[in-house]
Design a protein that fits this description.
Hypothetical protein af1432, mainly alpha, 18 helices, about 400 residues
């Protein structure tokens, strides 16, 4: 059965979910000279991450790492070339040969799903390569060589936290300060390393400040985006209730009760957010149910009930393409599963049913029993309690049922 308004729903939510993830090629469409445009295209091609990586921020990190390795290779190549031209009898140090090979290998890795590993190896091996040059006495300029530690800070800032940047910077500074005592024949005076030491400390401080500022911006952006998501989901929840007038207010009521029960069971943080979104959208699959079945004022026939039973599957088809809602999907897809395995659509049993769906199942039935329906009046609370108790261990998770009844007892 083709779901009503399916395309409109997916388009609306996906548009919201991707509004801040700009197309990677859009910046090439700006008005630039043909030569600059061509340079951008070439750079874009040589930093293109694997198609297996779909997260936008991860792709940006990988592009930055790949570009960084390309530029670094070029800088080292230009430096060695200048030595060959201007320094008589210059011989390429083995450590530099190793460095070139390492950068080529890491560049190949950097565009795959193992990009972070490439960054870690570079962070470890780059200082080792520099130190090997110093300790072997092959470096032409100790100060210049130490300044090449700065790329390691940049690599740290791509992937790791403020704490990591600080620790790495302090370790490098400590090493530099001890060089005159470790190898006095190569670094006879502390003044030789004061310049690169100052540069290193300045870079570390600037990266810590930049990272903190970036984190604050990212947190604010995420909060704003999450607020927009939630406003849209609440809007869709109200639209669904307008279509199904006899359950008006149901989504808001069960969402409030579900969150209360979930917190009582020790659930917190982002898990609560996922539960709230799932509760608001629990019946979104009913958009695929024909009006004559959904609004039938009398009991459903077996065939009509089979149509109704398709709505969790419709919800899955609607929401699964939206990665932001994957965890929230547990409730719309599984809230009709039963503890004894007699539910639908998958016939899950016991703890194989997601806990969010098990929590929701109790609250959903409770609210339905205590609400008016076209084919019956609302039940008294005492009768509703007896029904919930009777289905404990059959329809409902026993522990969740007991916790729910304890909460209801204090509010009845």
């Amino acid at each position: 059965m083709k779901m009503k308004n399916e395309l409109e729903l997916i388009a609306s939510l996906e548009k919201l979910g991707t509004k801040n993830n700009l197309d990677e090629n859009s910046w090439l469409e700006k008005k630039t000279t043909p030569i600059i445009n061509k340079m951008f295209q070439v750079g874009h091609k040589f930093t293109e991450p694997s198609n297996k990586i779909t997260d936008a921020s991860e792709r940006r990190n990988i592009r930055l790492l790949s570009l960084f390795l390309i530029i670094l290779f070029g800088i080292f190549f230009a430096l060695n070339l200048s030595y060959f031209i201007f320094v008589p009898h210059y011989i390429l140090p083995q450590a530099d040969v190793f460095g070139y090979a390492l950068m080529i290998i890491l560049y190949s890795i950097s565009r795959t799903e193992y990009a972070k590993l490439a960054s870690i190896l570079m962070i470890v091996m780059f200082p080792i390569n520099i130190y090997a040059n110093i300790l072997s006495g092959t470096s032409l300029s100790i100060a210049a060589t130490l300044n090449f530690l700065i790329p390691s800070y940049i690599l740290i800032s791509i992937w790791f936290s403020i704490v990591s940047i600080t620790i790495f910077g302090l370790l490098n500074a400590a090493f530099m300060l001890t060089l005159p005592y470790l190898v006095p024949e190569i670094v006879p005076k502390l003044s030789i390393i004061l310049g690169p030491l100052a540069v290193s400390v300045i870079v570390m401080v600037l990266l810590v400040v930049a990272k903190k500022h970036h984190n604050q911006i990212e947190i604010a952006r995420q909060l704003e985006l999450r607020s927009a998501y939630d406003a849209t989901l609440e809007g869709w929840s109200r639209v669904l209730e307008l279509r199904d007038e006899e359950t008006g207010g149901h989504s808001q009521r069960v969402t409030t009760l579900v969150l209360e029960l979930a917190q009582e069971l020790g659930i917190s943080g982002q898990d609560l957010d996922h539960i709230r979104r799932g509760a608001l959208l629990h019946d979104i699959g009913k958009m695929g149910v024909p009006d004559d079945v959904l609004h039938k004022p009398s009991s459903l026939t077996d065939d009509e009930f089979e149509i109704i039973k398709q709505h969790p599957g419709f919800a899955y088809e609607l929401l699964f393409p939206i990665s932001f809602l994957h965890k929230a999907l547990e409730i719309p897809y599984c809230h009709h599963e039963k503890w004894d395995g007699s539910g639908y659509p998958q016939g899950l049993k016991g703890e194989k049913i997601p806990i969010s769906a098990r929590i929701f199942a109790v609250v959903d039935v409770w609210d339905a029993l205590l609400s008016d329906r076209p084919y019956r009046n609302a039940w008294p609370k005492e009768k509703g309690v007896n029904y919930i108790i009777a289905d404990r261990g059959k329809h409902f998770d026993p522990h969740i049922t007991d916790t729910f009844l304890q909460i209801r007892e204090t509010t009845m």
